[in-house]
């Protein structure tokens, strides 16, 4: 994959990991711009290639009364404004075949959710837009099986594909990241570790997903040490009021300190690989 083909992706020659980060869902223009401005400032200072993440809608919810979005076109226009304001690429997840062409008009990377990564028509529709496709590894899939998901993209004539691991479910309410899968999946495409979703505790009896955000630093450091190409972290200035996935988000004011640690670790790993 050629990262320079992602429009406006900066610092690609820094030898640092790349970062996909932002709120779980677009809740409004002010919050999206506020979060993006902070992350862009930090990543520019640390020379980290950065892609702003925000879901234009949340289709996979535990309960019918869960927040799903502010309106598709409204949220997508906010993603475009983030890109134009801060000159960074953006990523959003899609859930239906019709979403692919619509979202591709506004964002630079299309993400296939973990529960949908085996849906061939959806993956192919994303690939045919020509946008970079980020495939979330299903919680029920082995690292080896992601080879076939990647092939659906490349066989559609699109070489711009990323794999993101968000853990594997070994019980009803918890997930584990098996770092043995990192070198396996790197044979197929660049690999990202979804730090915050890996620490989710889904299927709670309340119908609201839980999480273990205190372990975000541990998980992120382990990912860099294992050799991932990038990290995915959802963040919010007040996770307690976030309308989606607040239980496992990183508070925005803690992002810079963690990224500082991770860039130092990545530089050390780079030296070890010489």
Which key phrases capture this entry?
alpha/beta, 274 residues, 9 helices, 35% helix, two-stranded antiparallel ribbon, eight-stranded parallel barrel, TIM Barrel
CATH superfamily: Aldolase class I
Mean pLDDT over the full residue set: 92
- Helix percent band: 25-40%
CATH topology: TIM Barrel
Describe this entry's structure for a reader.
By secondary structure, this protein is α/β, with parallel strands linked by helices. It has one domain (3-272): Aldolase class I (TIM Barrel), CATH 3.20.20. Helices cover 35% and strands 18% of the residues. The protein contains nine helices and 13 strands. It has helices spanning 29-46, 72-86, 97-104, 120-128, 146-154, 181-185, 195-198, 216-226, 255-272, and strands at residues 18-22, 50-53, 90-93, 109-112, 132-136, 161-165, 168-169, 175-176, 191-194, 200-201, 210-211, 230-236, 250-251. The chain has an eight-stranded parallel beta barrel, surrounded by six helices. Helix 1 (29-46) packs parallel to helix 9 (255-272). It is globular. It starts with 17 loop residues before the first strand and ends with a helix. It catalyses: D-arabinose 5-phosphate + phosphoenolpyruvate + H2O = 3-deoxy-alpha-D-manno-2-octulosonate-8-phosphate + phosphate. This is 3-deoxy-8-phosphooctulonate synthase. Pfam families: DAHP_synth_1. One of its GO terms (molecular function) is 3-deoxy-8-phosphooctulonate synthase activity. Its EC number is 2.5.1.55.
């Amino acid at each position: 994959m050629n990262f320079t083909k992602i429009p406006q992706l900066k610092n690609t020659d820094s030898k640092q990991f790349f970062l996909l980060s932002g709120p779980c869902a677009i809740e409004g223009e002010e919050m999206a711009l506020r979060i993006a401005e902070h992350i862009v400032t930090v990543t520019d200072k640390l020379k980290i290639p950065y892609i702003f993440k925000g879901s234009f809608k949340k289709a996979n919810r535990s309960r019918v009364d869960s927040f799903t979005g502010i309106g598709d076109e409204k949220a997508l226009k906010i993603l475009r404004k983030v890109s134009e304001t801060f000159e960074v690429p953006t990523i959003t997840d899609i859930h239906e075949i019709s979403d692919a062409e619509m979202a591709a008009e506004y964002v630079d990377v299309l993400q296939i959710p973990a529960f949908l990564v085996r849906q061939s028509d959806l993956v192919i529709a994303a690939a045919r837009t020509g946008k970079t496709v980020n495939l979330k590894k299903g919680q029920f899939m082995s690292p080896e099986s992601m080879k076939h998901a990647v092939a659906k993209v490349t066989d559609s004539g699109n070489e711009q594909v990323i794999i993101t691991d968000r853990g594997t479910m070994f019980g009803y309410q918890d997930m584990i990241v098996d770092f043995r899968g990192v070198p396996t999946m790197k044979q197929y495409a660049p690999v990202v570790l979804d730090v915050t979703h890996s620490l989710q505790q889904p299927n709670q009896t309340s119908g609201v997903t839980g999480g273990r955000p205190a372990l975000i630093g541990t998980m992120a450091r382990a990912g860099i040490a294992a050799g991932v190409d990038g990290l995915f972290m959802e963040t919010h200035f007040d996770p307690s009021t976030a309308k989606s996935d607040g239980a496992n988000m990183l508070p925005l004011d803690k992002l810079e300190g963690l990224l500082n640690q991770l860039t130092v670790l990545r530089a050390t790993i780079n030296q070890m690989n010489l």
